[in-house]
Every structure is written in structure tokens, then in C-alpha cells.
Amino acid sequence: MSETLVAGPATGPLTGDIRPPGDKSISHRVIMLAAMADGTTEVSGFLPGEDNLATAQMFSQMGARIEWLNDEKTSLRVHGVGLHGLKEPQDVLDAGNSGTCVRLMTGVLAGQTFASTLTGDDSLRSRPMKRVVDPVRRMGATVDGREGGEYLPLTIQGGNLHAIEHASQVASAQVKSCVLLAGLFAEGETRVSEPKPSRDHTERMLPLFGQPVSVHGNTASLVPVGQLTAPPADIHVPADPSSGSFFAVAASLVPGSEVCLQGVGINPRRDGWRRILTQMGASIEQEHGLQLGEEPMADLFVTGAPMKGATVRPDDIADAIDEFPVLFVAAALADGEFVLKGARELRVKESDRIAAMTECLVACGAKIEEFDDGVRIIGCKRLTGGVSVDARGDHRIAMAMAVAAQRADSPIEIRNAGGIHTSFPDFVEMAQAIGMQVEWA
Ligand code: S3P
């Protein structure tokens, strides 16, 4: 399988109606809760990316049965084993590239009376884990790992947890969700607060499984009811706004484009990219809004528009944290200056996204000043093609650069792009369907 993409430039406007794949964050959570519920949960719109399949594989290793209902693995039936029904895995649990899988599973495994070991790929083994290890240790779990538990592999011996109040130093849904999931197994009320509200899919989904969660400002809390119950209705996962944002930026940047993104999640905690892009002059109309379960979704119509720079509002950062690579592309091709500060978290994602995007875009002639916690980008009319850039194995860097290439003067080679399979296995086909120039080398 090739790891190199060749992309751009676009030969005309981008057009068409597409449905981006299922939401990655929600797909992780639905497997986790359904596997630990009493009863059977049917799910449609699931994302069959490598990250989510890693989560599914972990629960299979611990005794839950996952029945795929179609060849694409977008529909499934999860036969839950009950909150206390997971079995000791016979082997190491491998999260691959997925931070969400490993951090949320730290909470789940802290609640188990058996020992288990979590690991991941080179990227994941270099990402910080103390942010989840510290709270579950305080709840009573024993966790061993490299450098005092900062890095994978982690071995967790859980059980007999007690509730804590945890004040997270970072706005992170992974930390918040880890603590809430551990709280399902703890005695008493578990509370977790964060400096700014992060995505709230866990808080929205737990009540569907019969576990109430209270949310007051930036604090979420739960008192465990002692079980999860499979919901009577099927769960439909909305299309992933993070995946949709690549096409929204591409359509905004290529003049004359008209692209409809169908059934995309518009949860306000995920919608920061749309607010920032609109601030930059993008034309994004919302239609056919509906709410299935606890997650809102809508069709988004994006048309090409002149883009201008912007200063990102602090309140939008957590709500757009995964979309900055492609927003930097929009900024590099906008009129004027784009400034982002206060986003140091970007340095500890699947790659150091500030460094990776700066390196890639500068190689294409963009003007970028890098800060420890953000960037200043001075937009230009067109990028320089004919260069080879390194996506560092990070899916979002690879897809963002494929978008950038649509507005380059000749094709761009994107190396180490295989990470796309973690979140968006059909990216190339879908991009081609709206007329983007991109293919595997
Ligand atoms: C996620 C939370 C975010 C995000 C990640 C998915 C989640 O990470 O970057 O892609 O599903 O909870 P942080 O919680 O570390 O910000």
C-alpha cells in the first residue's frame, strides 16, 4: 500500500454532494458503552477507520461480541457483557495511533479488577499520558509506565475505585471522558472540571445508556447507577465534521465550487472550524438540521468565496482543535493576516501540528511565523508546487496538504500519508468525487 499522495492543482470548481464518514469520537464512545452495557446495541454510520477498529478489537479481546452487519463495517451490533462483565485480555491491548482509544480505555481499565497493558505506535508512545494516569491513580488504580507513567506502554491494575474531584489543567475531552468512565466503577460522585469546555460526546451518550450525567459550566459529574443498559433505539453516528472540514476548506478556496456535505455533526463543541472559517469569509449554509439521539447534524452547503485573515477567538480553540491543520491552509491562501495563540495542545497531537504544518506550508512558499502556542500566517494568492512534503504519519497533516495542493501552481508530493486510514480510509475516493486532484502514488 502506498504511503505517498500526489495532489493538485484543481483543474476547475469542486462540485457534488458527499457524506463524510462517521464521526471518529462518537464511534469510539459507542463501542465502549455498548460493550459494557446489558443488552444489544445496533449502530449505523460507524467509522471503520483504524483508530475505531482498534477500540473494537480491545473489547473483542475482553469478551464482548461485535457483529458487523455489512462489508464496509459501518453497521454493527454490539452484544454487551454488562458493566462488570469484561474479561482479562490474553495479550497486550494495542491502540495503534489513537489517543482517544488509549486515554478513554485508561479510564475503563482502571475500573477492572484484572491487570492489562496498553500500548500504541511510535507516535502514540511519545504522547503524554500523565494527564489520564494521575487522576486514575488518585481514584485507586495502580498504573506503571515509562517515565513514571508519562508514556506507553502502561500496565493498569484497577478495581476498588473511589470517586474524586479532578481539575484538568487542559481542556481535553479525552481526560474528561477517562475520568467519567472510571467514575462508572467508583464509589461516590466523580466530578471533573476543565479550563474551557471540550467536546461533550461522552456526557451526551451516557444518559442514552441509562447513566445520568450532570453538567454545570465547565464541570461534569456522575454518580454511578451500577449498570449501563443498551438503548431501545439504534444509534446513528453523524458524519464527522473534522473529515468534512477538509472539503469545506477546499470548496471555499477553489473559485466557483459548490459542495454539499451531508449529515454532518454540528455539535457546538465541534463547530469551531465553521465559526472560524465563516469569520474568514467562507460561505457555509446549513439545511435539513435534525437531531438523532443526542447529537445534532445538518447538511452544509459550501461555495467558493474570497477568504480573508482572522484572529482566532480563545473560545473557539477547543471547539476547532482538530481542524487547525486545514484552517492553516485556508489562512495561507487568504487575504491578510491570520493569528492563532493559546493552542499549545497542537504540539502533542498525532504529530507536532504547529511544526509540521509550518514546515509543509513554508516548503510551498507560504509565509508563517511559528509561536510556541500558535502561528501567524500571511496569506498569498497561490502556493508553489513541485515540492515534496512530509506528513509525519499524521492523517490530518496529509489531508490538509492535499487540500493546499488544490491551489498550488503544480502538483505536490505528500510523503508518510498512510495515517489517513486511521480516520478517513476513503478520503482519496471522496475527494476525487468532488473533483479534487489527488491520488496515491
Ligand atoms: C478527542 C478529543 C480531542 C481531539 C481528538 C478526539 C475525543 O483530544 O483532538 O482527536 O474524541 O475525545 P483532546 O481531548 O486531547 O483535546
Protein model, in words:
With 441 residues, the chain is α/β, with parallel strands linked by helices. It has a four-stranded mixed beta sheet. A four-stranded mixed beta sheet has the order 2-17-19-18. It folds into two domains: 5-22 and 238-440, Enolpyruvate transferase domain (UDP-n-acetylglucosamine1-carboxyvinyl-transferase, Chain); 24-235, UDP-n-acetylglucosamine1-carboxyvinyl-transferase, Chain, CATH 3.65.10. It has 15 helices and 25 strands. Helix 3 (99-110) packs parallel to helix 6, helix 8 (241-253) packs parallel to helix 11 and helix 8 packs parallel to helix 13 (395-405). A hairpin with a 7-residue loop joins strand 4 (65-68) and strand 5 (76-79). The chain is 30% helix and 25% strand. The protein has helices at residues 24-35, 50-61, 99-110, 130-138, 146-149, 173-183, 201-205, 241-253, 272-279, 314-317, 324-332, 353-363, 395-405, 420-423, 427-433; strands at residues 5-7, 15-18, 40-44, 65-68, 76-79, 93-94, 115-119, 142-145, 151-157, 161-162, 165-167, 186-187, 190-193, 214-216, 219-222, 235-236, 258-265, 283-292, 295-303, 337-340, 367-371, 374-378, 388-390, 412-415, 438-440. The chain binds shikimate-3-phosphate.
Q: What is the strand content?
A: 15-25%
CATH topology of the largest domain: UDP-n-acetylglucosamine1-carboxyvinyl-transferase, Chain
Helix content range of the residues, please?
Answer: 25-40%
- In the CATH hierarchy, the architecture of the largest domain is Alpha-beta prism
Bound molecules: shikimate-3-phosphate
Alpha-carbon distance between the two ends: 10 Å
| Beta-strand segment tally | 25
**Average pLDDT:** 98
How many domains? The number is 2
Rounded Rg: 21 Å
Number of helices: 15
Give me the secondary-structure category. alpha/beta
Poorly predicted runs: none
Please, what is the CATH homologous superfamily of the largest domain? Enolpyruvate transferase domain
Sheet with most strands: 4 strands, mixed
Principal-axis shape: globular
Oligomer: single chain
Strand order of the largest sheet: 23-24-1-25
